[in-house]
Write a structure and sequence with these properties.
CATH architecture of the largest domain: 3-Layer(aba) Sandwich
Radius of gyration: 19 Å
Largest sheet: 5 strands, mixed
Strand content: 15-25%
């Protein structure tokens, strides 16, 4: 009998959820950055192995909200936990032992889904006996993790074609890769003020034409993102285009624009427009 179900990767920011998702599915789907809180919306990756299909959800980190965008990220993380059939609770091995998930997430009661404790970044810390420890960087411990998750997944048919790697459209990943490039190219707090919206996505063309708008909160930020003579926006666009082409397997023409959307991180209508629901 086959097994299939949703496995949410849960934990506080910067515990390695996105790196682990990419390692599990064998494709760069989720934003990876040394800066915390880069994941704003859940990213769903698929792994079909033998008689089991894992539907992995890389959820935003469980954080204490400071403004409306944080509230939306926390709400998305809690929804993912509530909807999961299995929860992989991730915590860095160097910070062993992990606090209970319910207290970390501020839950009134323990989650209904079974919780598998997974210690991450095993390549950076000594092993602890009887712990499930993995490294998304080296791949250590992934097979052991998959076996532990499989035992807790419900029996049932696959939900997706075994060859599929993701459930979200390429438009979603294009916007995410532009944001990832912003985290790489921009410094200090500026990437947190950047949002991306895909205005147009023409897959029938060769190269694929994508028109994207980067939103910032202030005019001064717009100038920094564009850079002297357009240098910064060109570098950002080149980095994002390479990521999109790698996933799409086709050449891409990325038409990038920068606009100001005042205080969008704190404005409910702006957040909804950009796809960040707060409830």
């Amino acid at each position: 009998m086959t097994r299939c179900g949703t496995v949410v990767l849960a934990g506080r920011p910067n515990v390695g959820k996105s790196t682990l998702l990419n390692a599990l599915v064998g494709e760069h789907l989720a934003i990876v950055s040394p800066k915390p809180q880069s994941t704003r919306l859940p990213v769903v990756g698929l792994l079909t192995k033998d008689d089991t299909q894992y539907i992995f959800t890389d959820s935003p980190g469980l954080l204490e909200p400071e403004y409306k965008l944080h509230e939306a990220m926390r709400a998305a993380a809690l929804r993912a936990i509530d909807d999961a059939e299995v929860i992989a609770y991730l915590h860095p091995l160097s910070e062993y032992p992990a606090p209970p998930l319910a207290s970390l997430a501020g839950l009134a009661r323990a989650p209904r889904a079974p919780v598998v404790m997974v210690y991450t970044k095993a390549d950076l810390a000594p092993a602890h006996p009887e712990t499930l420890a993995v490294s998304g960087t080296t791949g250590a411990g992934l097979d052991t993790m998959l076996a532990a998750l499989r035992d807790r997944l419900p029996e049932g048919p696959f939900h997706y074609d075994p060859d599929e790697l993701a459930t979200q459209p390429m438009r979603f990943f294009a916007a995410e890769f532009v944001r990832e490039a912003a985290f790489e190219q921009l410094h200090e707090e500026l990437p947190y003020s950047v949002a991306c919206e895909i205005d147009e996505f023409r897959e029938g063309a060769e190269p694929v034409y994508i028109r994207a708008v980067l939103y910032v909160e202030r005019d001064s930020q717009k100038g920094i993102v564009i850079g002297e003579g357009g240098r910064t926006i060109k570098a950002l666009g080149a980095a994002a285009r390479a990521k999109i082409e790698a996933l799409l397997g086709q050449r891409v023409f990325l038409d990038l624009h920068v606009k100001v959307l005042p205080k969008w991180r704190r404005d409910e209508p702006s957040l909804k427009r950009l796809g960040y629901a707060t409830s």
